[in-house]
Amino acid sequence: MHLKKLTVNGFKSFAHKATLEFSSGITAIVGPNGSGKSNIADAIRWVMGEQSIKTLRGKKSEDIIFSGSDKKARLGLAEVSLELDNADKKIPLDYSEITITRRLYRNGDSDYLINNHKSKLADLNLLLTQANFGHHTYAIVGQGMIDNFLLATPEERKNFFEEATGVKQYQIKKNQTISKLEQVGQNLATAKIRIQEMEPQLQLLTRQVKKLNKRKETEVELNEVRLNYYGSSWQEINKNYQDELKKTEFIETDKKLAEEKWKNLEKELNQIVKNDGLNQTIEKLRGEQQAAAEQKMRLKEKLFLLKNSSSSPGGGPFINFQPLSEDQMNQLNAQLSVLEHLQESALFALDQKNNVETIKTIINNLGQKIEKIIAFLKPYLKPKKETAPKIEQTNPETQSLEQKIAQTDELSDCLQIEIKNLLKEDEVKRSKLWDTQQKYQLAQQELRSLDNQLSEARIILARTETKKFDLKQESVRELGSLDLLENNNLPALSTEEKNALQNKINKLKGQLEIIGGLDPGIDVEYKNTQKKYDFLTAQISDLNQTLESLKKTINDLDQIIKSQMTHSLESINAYFQKYFGLLFNGGKAVLSLLKKEVPEEDDPSQSSNYPAINFFQEKSKNDYDRLEIYATPPGKKLKSINVLSGGERALTSIALICAIISSNPAPFIVLDEVDAALDESNSVRFAQILNDLSHKTQFIVITHNRATMEKAKLLYGVAMSDDGVSKLLSIRLGDSSTFINTR
Ligand code: ATP
């Protein structure tokens, strides 16, 4: 990589566009004092991103824009472009030529362009560092800055040294990584604090959610058990109710039938009783028979009297009738009344359907009374003493009487037969009545029994209904609805099983009471908190991984830096000694890296909460942070480089710069009058050294030194015009000695 072209326009004294093309080797820029030579070095420094106005020899940024002169007005824009050959791809972009442009407007606006694309300063810096170009260091050594390195503090020198040894790019990466590490460390610490704060809440929520889940499980189990219990009970009670209902209906039906039967029997009885005119008929016939008997008695009495009157006075043919006294007649009448009374009793007993024994007793009484009457009358009925047979003389009246008696007998017999038949009929009827009465009583008993059964069944049904109602109320209270109970196919339960379920229900209810009421929103809160916690845990894990990865990167970079610095230090020291010896004709020069001195209070064992800080504290123990220079010209015994003369300082600096260039050549080097303080012989030696080094790097050298000019392949002359504008002239040495005006 090398410089191809520099174009300045409006930059400091270069009011007009001027272009410098460079070749390999040494390009010398010459010209009188104040012509604008150093402005070219400034332009290169500026376009490469220099931020220090002081380094650019100004006070404010607009000082780099052409400020005008007596004859030329000031400009509003300064623009510098630097064209780099990148065929070797030292700048890691896919271009063989790269043009860097920087613009500054008087209003303060500025742009960086890489191949005409706007870019950031940081990108530009990184690219140049990767190409081993450090604009802060030895690559552009401004006028009077040659001994800056020697006069700098050991800490400043270390920075310079990092650029010089090419580890700056790794240092930049390392610093970027450290920034990331610090950020990650802070994020990690914040995440840890947040997760620590969250832990007690999460633990509380976890416990509550466990309780909530236990509650839900218990509720589910309770519902199942309740469903089992109430479902089966509901089935059972419904079945019971249906059974009892059917039973009641059966009894009702039976009762209706029994009632009907009973009513029919009642009707039948009524009918039998109602149609019972037989007694009256018998009574009537008996009355008629009695009347016939009385009639016969009277007829016989009449016949007797008739016969006795016609044969002998005072007696009939068969018995002697002794007339009865009044007392005797009264007794007879009394006994006949008893007889009548007994007859009535017998009839009444028959009417009342009394039992046979009663009737028999009455009939016996009747017989005894009749015998009594006969016994009473017997003494008065003495048979008549037979006299000589007497021829009966028929008497018409007697005949009529006898005829009437015969008729009366006949009537009496007929009546007797009729009564006998009627009594038989009556007997049949009474038997039927008896039978019907028995049936009636049985039907009545059955009806009563069914009535009792029905009342009992209705009571049981009402009890079952009440139980059903109670169970329904309880089920609704326990299950919230009856829907689940209907149409279930749960098997019936034994009493033991029901008791077991009831115990289980009580136990689960007890457990729920112990768990207590919980806000169901806890679940959502727990999930959200757990989500945050998981997120933070994952974040901490990621951050730890990132942290470890960044630490590894830093360690790797440290290794590279350390190895490269050690290697470069050895190499630079060798060249430093070489060039120092060349320029001083002897002497000793050496660079030394010194370790950081760690104060007691910064003891890394006092660990911080920030893992990144601990890491740095641990690492910084091994950091080199100072670069010391020891330079002793021949024959001298110097304790410090501060006591070197101005020329000695310049020679030492040149020896060091040349050592760095030899060890780690930058793509190009700009040297602005670094040889100003050298005497003639040293100027020649310096020119020779440059010439030797120009095989390794490209030099743009601003010089008044003829020996240096002689080593240049290309020479630019700079002159100041009357209008205060720098003019550029170039001369290619060797072929022509003519100055060419580049404008
Ligand atoms: P020497 O050989 O003495 O070091 P030089 O050739 O290096 O001189 P420079 O320092 O490059 O000279 O240029 C200085 C000149 O540039 C001065 O004359 C100064 O007035 C002019 N100059 C600097 N800044 C501006 C500016 N912004 N506008 C116009 N001219 C400027």
Automatic annotation (TrEMBL):
Domain AAA+ ATPase residue range list: 23-735
Coiled coil: 195-222, 255-302, 405-467, 526-560
InterPro entries: AAA+_ATPase, P-loop_NTPase, RecF/RecN/SMC_N
Top-rank taxon, per record: Bacteria
Keywords: Coiled coil
Protein name stated in the entry: Chromosome partition protein Smc
Organism listed in the record: Candidatus Kuenenbacteria bacterium GW2011_GWA2_42_15
